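Hello forum,

I keep getting stuck at the same step: I have a sequence, I want structure tokens, and every attempt I make locally crashes halfway through. Rather than fight my setup again tonight, could one of you with a working pipeline run this one for me? It's a single chain of 274 residues.
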Amino acid sequence: MLITGSGSELHDLRWIEREAADGSYEVDITNITDSIGVLGVAGPNSRKVLQKLTSEDLSDAAFKFLHCKSIQLAGVHLRAIRISYTGELGWELYVDMPKMAEVYQAIMEAGQEEGIDNFGTYTMASLRLEKGFRGWGAEMNCDTNPLEAGLDYFIKLNKPADFIGKKALQEIKAQGLVRKLAYLTLDTDNIDPEGNETIWHEGKVVGNTTSGAYSYSTQQSLAFGYLPIQLATIGQRVEVELLGRKYPATVVQEPLVLTEPTRTRLQKKAKSRP
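Reply #2:
Ran it on my machine without issues. Output:
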């Protein structure tokens, strides 16, 4: 099963079908989007709540980050992936649509003692920005490349095997980047960035934000934005235009909040020291 973003379903499906046709691959491709739904359960108590509904061991040792398992939860067979776009402890549960409401109700009932509640996309945006997570359609789209989006870590250009886009990325790297995604904190009053706002420097337009939100963990406004490579350096001061007014912004090191897996790993490392 291949999982993609809800907004890029047809974009990705067309790409896969075209690659399969051009390469004459013997593969069957079926779009199951309408038959399977997903529930995201995230937060420090997510493991505790879900453990009430399954005999599967959800401990960190037994169910590691990024692992996927077929489990039974609330009497329903489903796929569980230990991942969350919030960057916190969490699972994505892929459920057959006829069973979706049943599983949802069971989770909400099981989490009453822990204060479980629904959260929306604005909350998701705030949490993922704190962790420095990129978003498709914002930081990543058909007009950007992985190197300028700061995704170098995930690309192994020196691997012997060829892969789609390898040659193009090697050429881009050799030519040098002209712009780079920057992580910004903003000094605002009663307004926060949302994305697609103009970035100014010394009276000139130099770039645009791609995403923005208020960070409740760090009590400040955050944004991602593309800047000329010479301005995309830690400590660089720029301005972001919000509702016709320019607000000071600073390029900072990302992320401002570590992901749960990183925090857990660092805690284990600290405890193992003599």
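Helices lie at 9-22, 46-51, 100-110, 121-130, 166-175, 260-272. If your local run keeps crashing, start a new thread with the error log.
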